[in-house]
Amino acid sequence: MLGDELPELVGLSADLAGSCLSIWDKIEPVTAETGGNYIYCGVREFGLGAMMNGIFLHGGFRPFGGGYVVFSDYQRNAIRMAALMKLGVVYALSHDSIAVGEDGPTHQPIEHLGSLRLMPNLDVWRPADAVEAAIAWETALKHTGTPTLMSLSRQVLPPLARSASQAEAIRRGGYVLAEAEGAPAAVIIATGAETRQALDAREALAKEGIQVRVVSMPSTFVFDSQDKAYKAEVLPAGIPRVSVEAAGTEYWRKYVGLEGGCVGIDTFGESAPPPVLFELFGITAEGVAKTVKSVIG
């Protein structure tokens, strides 16, 4: 656990520590009488963000805050000030898609990821498994002048198969997770939990003789900072692209272009079990494969 290894780490929670798994065994809550390494803020998302900024400015501590992605709206000005002031605070936010399920559209982020990625000097990570999440934390702790926001799933995400070189490439924000057997007819760019739908679509398309490459892009912020040669290697020019993310699609146009395809959600969500919602919005292997076929003609 990071908390056991980093005595300077201070956690904050807006009444969601249990739901977001943002606590560990050895936390010591701060009280009026005693110090500690964890602050229960109550339902005060903006207060949590402002406190993290102050703690970081004080020095000697690395604050992180837990909560739901959808409630980042309440924290937005504190997040923006952290980005503007170059503060290395960390937001570890969970429940990042329609997989919230029966809680319904009030708790299902749609436009949040795209708008947060547009904020200057904010590094948004959406990891596909624990390995990408670990790299996200490593990157966040090295970022002393950039706030990091992790968008984490509610679902349990089994580890993805990857080589040592692919694991190393996670640090570059985007990398080839699964290569096409031969020249790719299309490139699928995926993030978070939906990376599995992208991989399943790749397998289904291969059975039809359509070869595609799957790119995992947990951090567009980091990927965009890479040299042109690397970006062109991962996303070759002239090959149709499809993005896959259970959120708004408009942000992904910068990567797929007007002729590319986007698998996502451009309406508010619904209240239903997660599998029903993913079928409803077409965020399935079949839906991804269908979109790939539409862009390659």
Which features would summarize this protein structure in a list?
297 residues, alpha/beta, Rossmann fold, 2 domains, 6-stranded parallel sheet, 5-stranded mixed sheet, 11 strands, 37% helix
Q: Would you mind describing this structure in some detail?
A:
- The chain is of the alpha/beta class.
- The chain folds into two domains: 2-151, 3-Layer(aba) Sandwich (Rossmann fold), CATH 3.40.50.970; 164-296, Rossmann fold (3-Layer(aba) Sandwich), CATH 3.40.50.
- It contains 13 helices and eleven strands.
- The chain has helices at residues 2-5, 17-20, 45-58, 72-85, 112-117, 130-142, 164-169, 195-207, 220-224, 228-234, 253-256, 274-280, 285-296; strands at 9-13, 38-40, 62-68, 90-94, 123-125, 148-151, 175-178, 186-190, 212-216, 241-244, 261-263.
- The strands form two sheets. Strands 2-1-3-4-6-5 form a six-stranded parallel sheet, sandwiched between helices. It has a five-stranded mixed sheet with strand order 7-9-8-10-11.
- Strand 5 (123-125), helix 6 and strand 6 form a beta-alpha-beta unit.
- Helix 3 (45-58) runs parallel beside helix 4.
- The longest helix is centred in the N-terminal third of the chain and has 14 residues, at 45-58.
- The protein is globular.
- The chain starts with a helix and ends with a helix.
- The mean pLDDT is 94.
